[in-house]
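This part of the workshop introduces the protein records we will be handling. A learned vocabulary of local backbone shapes supplies the integers on the structure line. Getting from the letters to the tokens is the skill we practise here. As an example, a complete record with its sequence and its structure tokens follows.
=====
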Amino acid sequence: MTFKKILFPTDFSANADRALEHAVHLADPADAELIVQHVVSDYFERHSHWATLFDIHELQKRMDGYVVSRVLPAFAKNPAVRVRQVISKGKPAEEISALAEKELVDVVVMGSAKGVVTNDVIRRTLRPVFATSMKGGSHPLEVKRILVATDFSEHSKKVVRYAFDLKKAFNATLYLLYVVETPRALEFGVRQGAFFQTIEKMRKWANDQLVNLTPDEYVNDATVIRIVDEGGASDRIADVAGELGADLTIVGTHGYEGLRRHFLGGTTDDLLTKIDSPLLAVKL
């Protein structure tokens, strides 16, 4: 598992700069290419009377300045990384997704402001999307703790395999998480002492499933830890990531359905507003 080709969309904001720091740590040190993309909105097509005030050459100068002042210094310790610039025109999510597919990038690394563009990119592209959360969290560290959430669907096995590839690449501890969804009525009953045996049976079943998802060579590995929790999926994923101090949280997404199809109501937008660690969304 290596990230040899990384797409880094930027709007020159602080959130984008934070994502750039993560891109530095994710790039293959021996052979990597970073595509720096900036998307020019189609604003001037809708308001053509302002078009004369817009100079594409000035934007190119800004992009050049950004690469020289921010991007290249960030990769100073890794001069082998090749940097390429792309200026696109149109709607950000559409242009980012289109370039990701055209270039067949290994991962899209981007900052998330309110999560709107980020979530749209996650829904559109088939490429993995590494998004820094709105909270920002700590400075990028080595990826030593990876949390992957699964729902046991056939498709989610792909995400778990991907997580194990990353575990091997970064020599990280991997936490497998399954959240037993508990409706509010059931949560109230649990707090009152009811359904105890039912919840325990659900937790045992879920733990057995996590064992079945674990490749044979990792079944008895102390660096593979299985966790079963209950509650609202997005809340518990965010809470567990915080409690573990996860460096990376991985989830699967089903196109425009996001996580709603399996993590009942828990969306990537929810997670991006709740977790401190970066979120890696993998299309199922």
